[in-house]
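quick q for whoever's on today - can somebody do inverse folding on this one?? i tried earlier but teh output was garbage lol. tokens:
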């Protein structure tokens, strides 16, 4: 009997081990990138800048996004700051490219002109937040080497834990990233970003575990980026109406002219 139990135990261990690694780290990250996010998106969002003493500076942003190349899954997005007055009418346009870095432009009302964001500014803060310009864009799966470290539960979600190390470290912002990607939605709900200088976690991205479907699309409602070196953090969240309904919609028609430098400057 003991031999039978030992054999069954061995079989269970082998089966569980095989199932745990039936998917590779690269496949997990590719599935996360390929998940359905709609052909268009429109949302009203809050951005809270929180200093190390807990003081909050709230902002309101309206965001539009559109997939302009279905075959290559390339998108354009534009953000417009609605409040406070110090940043009102600031607009940011980003265009994904297939074979080069994303194009990024920002319109600052105080200057009255559109300024292109160069690739060398990728690690600069976006509007005083804990997100850099590089953080704002989707990193290509092929740019990193991915390793599935383990499968574990984080809060209420079963997650794949994947380590991603840049193939070209000099061109990357971080030494590596470790992502907790949900099995159910293929959404990263936690990402550790490691400093190239210290080798320690520099920033931590966390997603509130209230993921739900809007217009059939799995949606994140609350995200926090915390800089562990400064203690500063930035909270991004979908605004809600008095009834509690989130201000976000997918697959509604958006005029393509909104995603142009003309709109960036004029707001129309």
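ok took a stab at it. sequence:
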């Amino acid at each position: 009997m003991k031999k039978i139990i030992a054999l069954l135990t061995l079989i269970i261990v082998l089966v569980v081990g095989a199932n745990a690694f039936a998917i590779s780290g690269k496949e997990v990250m590719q599935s996360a990138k390929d998940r359905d996010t709609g052909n268009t998106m429109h949302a009203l969002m809050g951005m809270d800048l929180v200093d190390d003493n807990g003081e909050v500076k709230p902002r309101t942003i309206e965001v539009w996004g559109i997939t302009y190349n279905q075959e290559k899954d390339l998108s354009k997005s534009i953000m417009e700051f609605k409040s406070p007055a110090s940043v009102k009418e600031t607009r940011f346009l980003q265009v994904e490219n297939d074979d080069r870095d994303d194009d990024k432009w920002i319109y600052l009302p105080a200057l009255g002109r559109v300024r292109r964001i160069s690739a060398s500014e990728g690690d600069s803060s976006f509007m005083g937040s804990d997100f850099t310009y590089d953080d704002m864009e989707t990193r290509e799966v092929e740019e990193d080497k991915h390793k599935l470290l383990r499968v574990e539960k984080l809060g209420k979600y079963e997650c794949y834990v994947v380590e991603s190390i840049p193939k070209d470290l000099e061109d990357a912002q971080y030494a590596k990233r470790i992502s907790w990607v949900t099995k159910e939605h293929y959404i990263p709900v936690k990402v550790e970003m490691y400093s190239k200088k210290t080798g320690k976690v520099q920033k931590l991205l966390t997603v509130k575990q209230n993921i739900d479907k809007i217009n059939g699309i799995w949606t994140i409602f609350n995200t926090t980026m915390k800089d562990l070196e400064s203690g500063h953090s930035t909270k991004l969240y979908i605004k809600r109406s008095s009834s509690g309904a989130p201000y976000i919609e997918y697959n509604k028609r958006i005029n393509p002219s909104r995603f142009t430098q003309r709109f960036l400057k004029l707001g129309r």
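fwiw Helices lie at 2-20, 25-34, 261-266. also The chain has one domain: 25-266. so keep that in mind when u check it
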